[in-house]
UniProtKB/TrEMBL annotation:
It comes from Trichoderma gamsii. This is NAD-dependent epimerase/dehydratase domain-containing protein. Belongs to the NAD(P)-dependent epimerase/dehydratase family. Dihydroflavonol-4-reductase subfamily. One of its GO terms (molecular function) is oxidoreductase activity, acting on the CH-OH group of donors, NAD or NADP as acceptor. The chain crosses the membrane at residues 2-21. Residues 3-255 form the NAD-dependent epimerase/dehydratase domain. Keywords: Membrane, Oxidoreductase, Transmembrane, Transmembrane helix. The keyword Disulfide bond does not apply.
Length: 338
Protein backbone atom coordinates (compact mmCIF):
# COMPACT_ATOMS: atom_id res chain seq x y z
CA UNK A 1 0.00 0.00 0.00
CA UNK A 2 1.25 3.47 -0.88
CA UNK A 3 1.30 6.12 1.86
CA UNK A 4 2.00 9.82 1.28
CA UNK A 5 4.24 11.47 3.90
CA UNK A 6 4.43 15.27 3.71
CA UNK A 7 7.61 17.02 4.86
CA UNK A 8 9.50 13.77 4.49
CA UNK A 9 12.92 15.34 5.12
CA UNK A 10 12.08 16.31 8.73
CA UNK A 11 12.95 14.83 12.12
CA UNK A 12 9.64 13.14 12.94
CA UNK A 13 8.88 12.17 9.34
CA UNK A 14 12.18 10.28 9.03
CA UNK A 15 11.24 7.94 11.86
CA UNK A 16 7.70 7.56 10.52
CA UNK A 17 9.07 6.62 7.09
CA UNK A 18 11.34 3.97 8.55
CA UNK A 19 8.42 2.53 10.54
CA UNK A 20 6.28 2.48 7.38
CA UNK A 21 8.94 0.90 5.17
CA UNK A 22 9.72 -1.70 7.83
CA UNK A 23 5.99 -2.35 8.07
CA UNK A 24 5.83 -3.25 4.37
CA UNK A 25 4.34 -0.01 3.04
CA UNK A 26 5.48 1.98 0.03
CA UNK A 27 6.13 5.64 0.74
CA UNK A 28 5.84 8.74 -1.42
CA UNK A 29 7.32 11.68 0.44
CA UNK A 30 6.89 15.36 -0.31
CA UNK A 31 9.61 17.99 0.03
CA UNK A 32 9.75 21.64 -1.01
CA UNK A 33 12.81 21.59 -3.26
CA UNK A 34 14.79 19.39 -5.61
CA UNK A 35 17.77 19.80 -3.26
CA UNK A 36 15.80 18.23 -0.38
CA UNK A 37 14.53 15.55 -2.78
CA UNK A 38 18.10 14.53 -3.60
CA UNK A 39 19.00 14.25 0.08
CA UNK A 40 16.05 12.01 0.96
CA UNK A 41 16.53 9.83 -2.13
CA UNK A 42 20.03 9.15 -0.86
CA UNK A 43 18.83 8.52 2.71
CA UNK A 44 16.39 5.84 1.53
CA UNK A 45 18.49 4.47 -1.35
CA UNK A 46 18.32 1.01 0.24
CA UNK A 47 14.54 1.13 -0.28
CA UNK A 48 14.66 2.55 -3.83
CA UNK A 49 11.81 0.31 -5.05
CA UNK A 50 9.56 1.34 -2.12
CA UNK A 51 10.36 5.02 -1.69
CA UNK A 52 9.74 7.93 -4.05
CA UNK A 53 9.65 11.71 -3.75
CA UNK A 54 7.28 14.40 -5.01
CA UNK A 55 8.31 18.06 -4.94
CA UNK A 56 5.51 20.33 -3.68
CA UNK A 57 7.11 23.79 -3.59
CA UNK A 58 4.31 25.62 -1.76
CA UNK A 59 1.59 23.70 0.07
CA UNK A 60 -0.43 26.84 0.73
CA UNK A 61 -1.33 27.05 -2.98
CA UNK A 62 -4.70 25.49 -3.90
CA UNK A 63 -4.42 22.02 -5.51
CA UNK A 64 -0.79 21.83 -4.34
CA UNK A 65 -1.05 18.12 -3.55
CA UNK A 66 -3.24 17.05 -6.50
CA UNK A 67 -0.42 15.14 -8.24
CA UNK A 68 1.25 13.87 -5.07
CA UNK A 69 -1.87 12.09 -3.77
CA UNK A 70 -2.54 10.01 -6.90
CA UNK A 71 -2.83 6.28 -6.07
CA UNK A 72 -2.22 6.68 -2.33
CA UNK A 73 -4.06 4.54 0.24
CA UNK A 74 -3.45 6.93 3.10
CA UNK A 75 -1.43 9.96 4.16
CA UNK A 76 0.62 11.25 7.07
CA UNK A 77 0.51 15.04 6.98
CA UNK A 78 3.59 15.99 8.97
CA UNK A 79 4.88 19.11 7.16
CA UNK A 80 4.32 22.34 9.06
CA UNK A 81 6.53 25.30 9.90
CA UNK A 82 8.14 24.78 13.31
CA UNK A 83 10.70 27.52 13.80
CA UNK A 84 10.99 30.38 16.23
CA UNK A 85 12.99 32.94 14.22
CA UNK A 86 10.18 34.39 12.14
CA UNK A 87 9.58 37.80 10.61
CA UNK A 88 6.03 37.44 9.36
CA UNK A 89 3.58 35.31 11.37
CA UNK A 90 1.03 34.91 8.63
CA UNK A 91 3.07 34.14 5.53
CA UNK A 92 5.74 32.04 7.27
CA UNK A 93 3.69 30.09 9.81
CA UNK A 94 -0.09 30.53 9.97
CA UNK A 95 -0.93 30.34 6.27
CA UNK A 96 1.26 27.33 5.35
CA UNK A 97 0.10 25.40 8.44
CA UNK A 98 -3.62 26.04 7.92
CA UNK A 99 -3.88 26.18 4.13
CA UNK A 100 -1.41 23.29 3.74
CA UNK A 101 -3.67 21.10 5.87
CA UNK A 102 -6.84 22.11 4.02
CA UNK A 103 -5.18 21.64 0.63
CA UNK A 104 -3.90 18.17 1.51
CA UNK A 105 -7.39 17.08 2.61
CA UNK A 106 -8.99 18.59 -0.50
CA UNK A 107 -6.53 16.84 -2.81
CA UNK A 108 -7.10 13.47 -1.12
CA UNK A 109 -10.87 14.00 -1.34
CA UNK A 110 -10.70 14.86 -5.04
CA UNK A 111 -7.93 12.62 -6.39
CA UNK A 112 -7.35 9.62 -4.10
CA UNK A 113 -10.60 7.62 -4.10
CA UNK A 114 -8.88 4.57 -2.61
CA UNK A 115 -7.46 6.48 0.40
CA UNK A 116 -8.95 5.29 3.69
CA UNK A 117 -7.40 7.63 6.25
CA UNK A 118 -5.38 10.80 6.70
CA UNK A 119 -3.27 11.14 9.85
CA UNK A 120 -2.27 14.66 10.86
CA UNK A 121 0.64 15.46 13.18
CA UNK A 122 -0.86 18.18 15.32
CA UNK A 123 0.66 19.01 18.70
CA UNK A 124 0.16 19.56 22.41
CA UNK A 125 0.38 23.17 21.21
CA UNK A 126 -3.16 22.67 19.86
CA UNK A 127 -4.36 21.48 23.28
CA UNK A 128 -2.65 23.81 25.74
CA UNK A 129 -4.63 26.65 27.32
CA UNK A 130 -1.86 29.14 28.04
CA UNK A 131 -4.21 31.47 29.90
CA UNK A 132 -4.17 28.88 32.70
CA UNK A 133 -0.37 28.93 33.09
CA UNK A 134 0.94 25.63 34.43
CA UNK A 135 -2.59 24.85 35.59
CA UNK A 136 -1.99 22.96 38.87
CA UNK A 137 -4.59 20.24 39.42
CA UNK A 138 -5.45 19.91 35.73
CA UNK A 139 -4.75 16.77 33.71
CA UNK A 140 -4.43 17.44 29.99
CA UNK A 141 -6.20 15.00 27.72
CA UNK A 142 -7.81 14.89 24.27
CA UNK A 143 -10.73 17.09 25.36
CA UNK A 144 -8.45 20.12 25.76
CA UNK A 145 -8.10 22.84 23.12
CA UNK A 146 -5.94 25.88 22.62
CA UNK A 147 -8.64 28.46 21.80
CA UNK A 148 -6.33 31.17 20.47
CA UNK A 149 -7.74 33.17 17.54
CA UNK A 150 -6.17 33.89 14.16
CA UNK A 151 -6.36 37.62 14.79
CA UNK A 152 -4.46 37.32 18.06
CA UNK A 153 -1.87 34.98 16.51
CA UNK A 154 -1.12 37.40 13.66
CA UNK A 155 0.89 39.69 15.93
CA UNK A 156 1.76 37.32 18.81
CA UNK A 157 5.29 36.17 19.68
CA UNK A 158 6.81 33.22 17.81
CA UNK A 159 5.89 30.54 20.36
CA UNK A 160 2.25 31.66 20.63
CA UNK A 161 2.07 31.97 16.85
CA UNK A 162 3.44 28.44 16.32
CA UNK A 163 1.01 27.01 18.88
CA UNK A 164 -1.85 28.87 17.19
CA UNK A 165 -0.82 27.53 13.79
CA UNK A 166 -1.15 23.99 15.10
CA UNK A 167 -4.50 24.63 16.81
CA UNK A 168 -6.02 26.46 13.85
CA UNK A 169 -4.73 23.89 11.33
CA UNK A 170 -6.18 21.05 13.39
CA UNK A 171 -9.51 22.85 13.74
CA UNK A 172 -9.58 23.42 9.99
CA UNK A 173 -9.00 19.70 9.46
CA UNK A 174 -11.90 18.65 11.70
CA UNK A 175 -14.12 21.28 10.05
CA UNK A 176 -13.26 19.85 6.63
CA UNK A 177 -14.13 16.31 7.75
CA UNK A 178 -17.37 17.35 9.45
CA UNK A 179 -18.59 19.54 6.61
CA UNK A 180 -17.30 17.75 3.50
CA UNK A 181 -17.80 14.21 4.80
CA UNK A 182 -15.14 12.81 2.46
CA UNK A 183 -14.68 9.11 1.68
CA UNK A 184 -11.76 8.84 4.16
CA UNK A 185 -11.52 9.46 7.90
CA UNK A 186 -9.08 11.49 10.00
CA UNK A 187 -6.82 10.64 12.93
CA UNK A 188 -4.92 13.38 14.73
CA UNK A 189 -1.82 12.92 16.90
CA UNK A 190 -0.93 15.56 19.50
CA UNK A 191 2.64 15.11 20.75
CA UNK A 192 4.34 17.53 23.18
CA UNK A 193 8.14 18.07 22.97
CA UNK A 194 9.58 15.29 20.83
CA UNK A 195 13.05 14.04 21.78
CA UNK A 196 15.24 11.10 20.79
CA UNK A 197 17.86 10.48 18.13
CA UNK A 198 17.67 11.82 14.58
CA UNK A 199 17.27 9.40 11.68
CA UNK A 200 17.50 12.03 8.95
CA UNK A 201 20.43 14.05 7.67
CA UNK A 202 21.16 16.62 10.40
CA UNK A 203 23.56 19.50 10.69
CA UNK A 204 24.31 21.61 13.73
CA UNK A 205 23.28 24.74 11.82
CA UNK A 206 19.86 23.46 10.72
CA UNK A 207 18.55 21.41 13.57
CA UNK A 208 14.81 20.95 14.13
CA UNK A 209 13.46 23.00 17.02
CA UNK A 210 13.03 20.28 19.67
CA UNK A 211 16.48 18.83 18.94
CA UNK A 212 17.98 22.30 19.28
CA UNK A 213 16.26 22.57 22.64
CA UNK A 214 18.34 19.64 23.92
CA UNK A 215 21.47 20.50 21.96
CA UNK A 216 21.77 23.73 23.97
CA UNK A 217 22.53 21.59 27.03
CA UNK A 218 25.54 20.06 25.28
CA UNK A 219 26.94 23.00 23.36
CA UNK A 220 28.22 25.01 26.32
CA UNK A 221 25.95 27.95 25.44
CA UNK A 222 23.76 27.70 28.57
CA UNK A 223 25.17 29.34 31.67
CA UNK A 224 22.28 28.15 33.78
CA UNK A 225 19.34 25.77 33.45
CA UNK A 226 16.50 27.68 31.75
CA UNK A 227 12.93 27.77 33.07
CA UNK A 228 10.82 24.97 31.66
CA UNK A 229 8.11 26.12 29.25
CA UNK A 230 6.46 22.83 28.23
CA UNK A 231 6.43 19.91 30.64
CA UNK A 232 5.44 16.94 28.46
CA UNK A 233 7.68 14.85 26.21
CA UNK A 234 7.59 11.82 23.95
CA UNK A 235 10.31 9.88 22.13
CA UNK A 236 10.34 10.25 18.36
CA UNK A 237 10.54 6.46 17.90
CA UNK A 238 7.33 5.96 19.89
CA UNK A 239 5.69 8.77 17.92
CA UNK A 240 6.68 6.96 14.69
CA UNK A 241 4.92 3.81 15.90
CA UNK A 242 1.91 5.98 16.77
CA UNK A 243 1.77 7.24 13.17
CA UNK A 244 1.65 3.71 11.76
CA UNK A 245 -0.93 2.53 14.33
CA UNK A 246 -2.97 5.66 13.63
CA UNK A 247 -3.17 4.58 9.99
CA UNK A 248 -4.00 0.97 10.78
CA UNK A 249 -6.23 0.74 13.86
CA UNK A 250 -9.89 0.93 12.79
CA UNK A 251 -11.02 2.45 16.13
CA UNK A 252 -8.58 5.34 15.65
CA UNK A 253 -10.77 6.82 12.90
CA UNK A 254 -12.00 10.34 13.65
CA UNK A 255 -10.16 10.37 16.98
CA UNK A 256 -7.53 12.64 18.49
CA UNK A 257 -4.67 11.21 20.57
CA UNK A 258 -2.38 12.86 23.13
CA UNK A 259 0.90 11.07 22.36
CA UNK A 260 2.87 11.72 25.54
CA UNK A 261 5.24 9.60 27.61
CA UNK A 262 5.17 11.77 30.72
CA UNK A 263 6.45 14.97 32.27
CA UNK A 264 10.00 16.31 32.42
CA UNK A 265 11.78 19.57 33.13
CA UNK A 266 14.97 21.25 31.94
CA UNK A 267 16.54 20.66 35.35
CA UNK A 268 15.79 16.96 34.98
CA UNK A 269 17.35 17.11 31.50
CA UNK A 270 20.57 18.51 32.97
CA UNK A 271 20.57 15.99 35.83
CA UNK A 272 19.98 13.00 33.54
CA UNK A 273 22.72 14.05 31.11
CA UNK A 274 25.25 14.57 33.89
CA UNK A 275 24.38 11.25 35.53
CA UNK A 276 24.57 9.14 32.39
CA UNK A 277 27.44 6.64 32.22
CA UNK A 278 27.14 6.76 28.42
CA UNK A 279 28.12 10.43 28.09
CA UNK A 280 31.80 11.40 28.21
CA UNK A 281 33.05 13.56 31.09
CA UNK A 282 34.13 16.32 28.68
CA UNK A 283 30.57 16.58 27.34
CA UNK A 284 29.04 16.48 30.83
CA UNK A 285 31.13 19.52 31.76
CA UNK A 286 29.23 21.54 29.14
CA UNK A 287 25.86 20.78 30.79
CA UNK A 288 24.67 23.56 33.14
CA UNK A 289 24.37 22.43 36.77
CA UNK A 290 21.38 24.51 37.94
CA UNK A 291 19.85 23.15 41.14
CA UNK A 292 20.16 19.37 40.91
CA UNK A 293 17.04 17.51 41.99
CA UNK A 294 14.88 20.65 42.14
CA UNK A 295 12.29 22.14 39.76
CA UNK A 296 10.95 18.77 38.66
CA UNK A 297 7.29 18.61 37.62
CA UNK A 298 5.27 18.31 40.80
CA UNK A 299 1.80 19.16 42.08
CA UNK A 300 2.29 22.75 40.84
CA UNK A 301 2.33 21.62 37.18
CA UNK A 302 -0.41 20.08 35.01
CA UNK A 303 -0.48 16.30 34.62
CA UNK A 304 -0.66 14.47 31.28
CA UNK A 305 -2.93 11.54 30.42
CA UNK A 306 -1.79 9.04 27.78
CA UNK A 307 -4.36 6.33 28.58
CA UNK A 308 -6.33 6.72 25.34
CA UNK A 309 -3.21 6.23 23.20
CA UNK A 310 -2.24 3.16 25.20
CA UNK A 311 -5.72 1.67 25.02
CA UNK A 312 -6.62 2.29 21.38
CA UNK A 313 -3.22 2.51 19.67
CA UNK A 314 -1.52 -0.01 22.00
CA UNK A 315 1.41 2.32 22.55
CA UNK A 316 4.24 1.73 24.99
CA UNK A 317 6.40 4.71 25.89
CA UNK A 318 10.14 5.04 26.33
CA UNK A 319 11.44 6.66 29.51
CA UNK A 320 12.76 10.21 29.64
CA UNK A 321 16.24 8.90 30.44
CA UNK A 322 16.35 6.70 27.33
CA UNK A 323 14.97 9.43 25.09
CA UNK A 324 17.23 12.21 26.28
CA UNK A 325 20.44 10.19 26.47
CA UNK A 326 19.89 8.73 22.98
CA UNK A 327 19.22 12.26 21.67
CA UNK A 328 22.40 13.51 23.33
CA UNK A 329 24.58 10.68 22.01
CA UNK A 330 23.27 11.32 18.51
CA UNK A 331 24.02 15.06 18.76
CA UNK A 332 27.49 14.50 20.14
CA UNK A 333 28.13 12.16 17.22
CA UNK A 334 26.91 14.77 14.70
CA UNK A 335 29.08 17.42 16.33
CA UNK A 336 32.17 15.22 16.43
CA UNK A 337 31.78 14.37 12.75
CA UNK A 338 31.18 18.00 11.67
P1 LIG B 1 11.27 19.54 11.20
O1 LIG B 1 11.61 20.99 11.17
O2 LIG B 1 12.37 18.55 11.24
O3 LIG B 1 10.31 19.19 9.98
C1 LIG B 1 9.37 20.07 9.51
C2 LIG B 1 8.96 19.63 8.11
O4 LIG B 1 7.93 20.51 7.65
C3 LIG B 1 10.11 19.73 7.11
O5 LIG B 1 9.97 18.75 6.13
C4 LIG B 1 9.89 21.11 6.51
O6 LIG B 1 10.40 21.28 5.20
C5 LIG B 1 8.38 21.14 6.46
N1 LIG B 1 7.93 22.53 6.39
C6 LIG B 1 8.22 23.53 7.23
N2 LIG B 1 7.66 24.67 6.81
C7 LIG B 1 6.99 24.38 5.67
C8 LIG B 1 6.21 25.13 4.76
N3 LIG B 1 6.01 26.44 4.92
N4 LIG B 1 5.71 24.49 3.69
C9 LIG B 1 5.92 23.18 3.50
N5 LIG B 1 6.66 22.41 4.32
C10 LIG B 1 7.17 23.01 5.40
O7 LIG B 1 10.32 19.39 12.45
P2 LIG B 1 9.67 18.16 13.18
O8 LIG B 1 9.97 16.89 12.51
O9 LIG B 1 9.99 18.31 14.62
O10 LIG B 1 8.13 18.53 13.02
C11 LIG B 1 7.25 17.80 12.18
C12 LIG B 1 5.83 18.04 12.60
O11 LIG B 1 5.63 17.66 13.95
C13 LIG B 1 5.35 19.49 12.49
O12 LIG B 1 4.01 19.45 12.05
C14 LIG B 1 5.42 19.98 13.93
O13 LIG B 1 4.50 21.02 14.15
C15 LIG B 1 4.99 18.71 14.66
N6 LIG B 1 5.41 18.66 16.06
C16 LIG B 1 6.75 18.66 16.39
C17 LIG B 1 7.13 18.59 17.72
C18 LIG B 1 8.56 18.53 18.14
O14 LIG B 1 8.85 18.66 19.34
N7 LIG B 1 9.52 18.32 17.24
C19 LIG B 1 6.12 18.60 18.79
C20 LIG B 1 4.75 18.55 18.33
C21 LIG B 1 4.43 18.60 17.00
P3 LIG B 1 11.76 22.15 4.91
O15 LIG B 1 12.88 21.26 5.32
O16 LIG B 1 11.70 22.42 3.46
O17 LIG B 1 11.65 23.38 5.76
Amino acid sequence: KLILVTGVNGFIAAHAVIALLDGGYQVRGTVRSEKSAEIVRKTYSAYADKFSVAVVPDMSVKNAFDEAVKDIHGALHIASPFMLNIKDNESEVLIPAIEGTKNLLASVAAHAPQAKRVVITSSFAAMADFSKGFWPGHTYNEADWNEVTYDYAKTADAVVCYCASKALAEKAAWKFINEQKPHFDLTVLNPPMVFGPAAHVVSLSAMNTSAWDIHRFLSGELEDVPDTGFWGFVDVRDLAVAHVRALEVPEAGNERFFIVSGRYSYQKTADVLRASPLIAEADKKLVPVGKPGQNYPGADIYEVDNSKSKKILGLKYRSFEESIVDAALNMIDVRNKA
